[in-house]
Amino acid sequence: MDFNFQEVTRNLISQIGFIILLIMVVRALIAYTREDWGQFFSGLVLGLFCLIVVFFGPQFEELAKALGNTIFS
Fold first, then answer.
1. Phi/psi zone of residue 4: left (φ > 0), alpha (ψ -120 to 50 degrees), beta?
2. Is the Cβ–Cβ distance between 60 and 24 less than 8 Å?
3. Which residues, other chains included, contact 25 with Cβ-Cβ below 8 Å and sequence gap of 6+?
4. Apex CA 19: angle with CA 32 and CA 29, to 5°?
5. Could you read off the pLDDT of 12-32 as tens digits, one per residue?
6. Biggest CA pair distance of the chain
7. CB 29: neighbour CB atoms within 10 A?
8. Could you list the residue ranges that cross the membrane (predicted)?
9. CB neighbours (10 Å) of residue 68?
10. What is the full per-residue pLDDT of the chain (73 aa) written as tens digits?
11. What is the 3-state secondary structure (H, E, C) of the chain?
12. How many CA atoms lie within 13 A of 56 on its CB side?
């Protein structure tokens, strides 16, 4: 049985990010119905940030590794 801990970690981080994304969308919709614009835009921005992290997480990881290797090598 081949167990890859890195793959499990990536999947778990993506799932947690997706749950946070859903929570932020619901909070933004509630703020929109109350016309609380500050909370609406902050929830919307945080939700978009979570969406970017979820979908582009592996690319961010590769970028961080490349920057780390450049700086510390």
1. beta
2. no
3. 43, 47
4. 5
5. 777 887 788 788 878 888 888
6. 54
7. 13
8. 12-32, 38-57
9. 10
10. 566 666 767 677 778 877 887 888 788 888 889 888 888 888 778 778 877 877 787 787 788 888 888 998 7
11. CCCCHHHHHHHHHHHHHHHHHHHHHHHHHHHHHHCCHHHHHHHHHHHHHHHHHHHHHHHHHHHHHHHHHHHHC
12. 9
Query: For tokens 């690319």, what's the residue?
Result: 59
Residue written as token pair 């961080």: 64
Q: How many residues make up the chain in this entry?
A: 73
